[in-house]
């Protein structure tokens, strides 16, 4: 294998260390195994039409120049997200006969094609011309096969994986002391972007109802305030209803997230939709019970008692799910949870990915 270039519209930087960290982690995993990789990525999370046009325009031009200069040294390209990122891989195939792999993360199938018929058509073309399509969840695979006409044999379900050297159980009392958390306080943890679609407001409402049974409980919200207006709405709700015990903890590094997960009594992930739900897998690896919406990849990840699934947007069901997890009454199938964590470990992910790359190289 000569060299691979990874294209991604999300990648971390010094200023934004968690932005697309899962892509960087996979790149580093591949490099450690001996694969030679270059990256052409966007590390600027700024939203807005003008920002989007500028950053995507600059990235596309840079990526095209890269392909022109390196086409003879490349085995294949690997795009994360179908559109717009996968489009540069499609261009590379048509201009230079470079095969490509595309990894789908959820929004590129659930949201992007619905923006316009042209994007939907391009997405279909990108997926159908790919040498292989990777989906982070089973539901996404079914969508790709049934709605975009991709052969089932050309699609592999493979999450971004969990690094068990980072996410694993820790001594709770010591970690809580380090984080300044009371030893006997029930801690409900949320990790993710603080946006409406993550079910944050419903979580606040469920927590409020839960306090009647567990007055000492606290809710810790960890993540980026991507929507300042929504965060203000949540804070106004908290103030208006005089809710105590809710703390906005800001963003954290991977190491810090692992500590918070090891210290928590339960991770809540009440998303409206979720391609896979990587943070739920990380919580499972850290030994934290997970209560999540029965949507997307979460429905498969937490099946058979590996976690507690509740209907999305239903506050009362969410409250009951949290109470069930906090009661510790055997609601979680620990053996099943461990089986799933092993299945999604970096070692297993690397094995699958290298097999896909190898098969493409052999058929060139």
From TrEMBL:
Residues 55-164 form the Glycosyltransferase subfamily 4-like N-terminal domain. Gene3D superfamilies: Glycogen Phosphorylase B (3.40.50.2000). It comes from the Bacteria. Residues 172-329 form the Glycosyl transferase family domain. This is Glycosyltransferase. It comes from Sporosarcina gallistercoris.
